[in-house]
Amino acid sequence: MYNPDYLMMTAGPTMVRENVMKKRSIFFGNPDIDDDFFKFYDELREKTAKIFGCSKSNMIFLSGEGMVGLDSACASLTEKGDRVLIIENGLFGSGFADLVKLYGGETATFHFDTKNKIDLEKLKDLLEIDSDFKFATVVHCDTPTGVLNDIEPICKLLKSKGILTVVDTVAAIGGEFFNAEKYGVDIALGGSQKVFSAPPGLTILSVSDDAWKAIENRKTSIPSFYCNLSYWKNCVEEKLFPYTMPASDLIAFDQAIDNILEEGIENVVARHHKVSKYCRNKVQELGLKLYLEDGFSPTVTSFYVPENFTTKEFIKELKEKHKILISGSFGEYSDYILRIGHMGESAKIEYIDQVILAIKDILNK
């Protein structure tokens, strides 16, 4: 039987509080036909909208891990021949291009140094030359390296050029301030398993009025059912979901949202910033080198694997000898980057101390 017993300090999924797990185990009812479930869903939209910075009518919950949200945004906005700007300084940023191409879009990729946040002035220069794009994609926190981008000025700049904005904030929202309406974010994408500290399985989206108009005014139908956002526009009012909702996941997520709101959004963000700075300092005190030069995320710290280790060896040593699990990375970074996640319930000083002591023990041996 699978029964993990380690401290999970990965870059998602994160630790889940006991009260969230208990809520996930209660009787879930029939979300297809129970009027009370639609009322619950609507109330959950209202609470979650406080974290996304939008109205409840813009909130959607999808069954599926965060990638479902990225896929749904691209499927719903992209028509054949649409030009889409891919703004990227990491793996998830560049990955948007593959999704857009699946639906017939033509991509132009603006690549930035992966060790630094996106340079707004360089983006301005690009858009002065070419701004003929239907929408642009950008990642708030690109987790393979932990770089955090300054979303507000980027999205305001894009909107000033008439470009719709799609923001992957899966690994940032909750640990960093976010306000979709203020920033000009047309589709914002979040995931239950990151800072929200709920079990994996939900994608959380906000969809602006401008994005709804673009979806409703398509010339061609959306080439997907599961990733078709148009079905969600009036689902509460019509009391009809496109498919059976994962009621247990939503009930647990509701408790996770209550945990955040009870602590206070500002306090949660402040806690993440405090813990991330503490983690970076402690990693450097061990003589280890951080990967990034700036744009440090409040939710994940990336550093180079110590000499005489591979990333897999180091992760295995921590897990087997100290019962602590941290993350490696992906793609081109998989051989030399290690990551400590400090998201949601995992963003605590005492947990960072446990990780640092374990790493120190391994290095000393």
Brief summary of the model shown:
The chain is an alpha/beta fold. The protein has 13 helices and 13 strands. Helix 4 (91-102) links the parallel strand 3 and strand 4.
List how many beta strands DSSP finds.
13
Oligomerization state of this entry?
A: single chain
Radius of gyration: 20 Å
Strand order, sheet with most strands? 2-10-9-8-5-3-4
Gap from first CA to last CA: 32 Å
Characterize the main sheet: 7 strands, mixed
Helix percentage: 40-55%
Shape: globular
Q: Which series of helices and strands comes N to C?
A: EHHEHEHEHEEEHEHEEHHHHEHEEH
Task: Extract low-pLDDT stretches.
Answer: none
Please state the structural category. Answer: alpha/beta
Average predicted local confidence, pLDDT: 97
Keywords, please?
365 residues; seven-stranded mixed sheet; 41% helix; alpha/beta; two-stranded parallel ribbon
Report what the structure shows.
The protein is an alpha/beta fold. Helix content is 41%, strand content 15%. It contains 13 helices and 13 strands. The chain has helices at residues 18-24, 35-52, 67-77, 91-102, 120-129, 151-160, 180-183, 209-216, 235-238, 247-263, 265-285, 311-322, 349-364; strands spanning 7-8, 59-63, 83-88, 106-111, 135-139, 141-142, 147-148, 164-168, 187-191, 202-207, 300-304, 324-325, 337-341. The strands form four sheets. A seven-stranded mixed β-sheet has the order 2-10-9-8-5-3-4, sandwiched between helices. A two-stranded parallel ribbon has the order 1-12. Helix 4 (91-102) links the parallel strand 3 (83-88) and strand 4 (106-111). Helix 3 (67-77) crosses helix 4 (91-102), helix 5 packs parallel to helix 6 (151-160) and helix 11 runs parallel beside helix 13. The chain is globular and about 65 Å long. It starts with 6 loop residues before the first strand and ends with a helix.
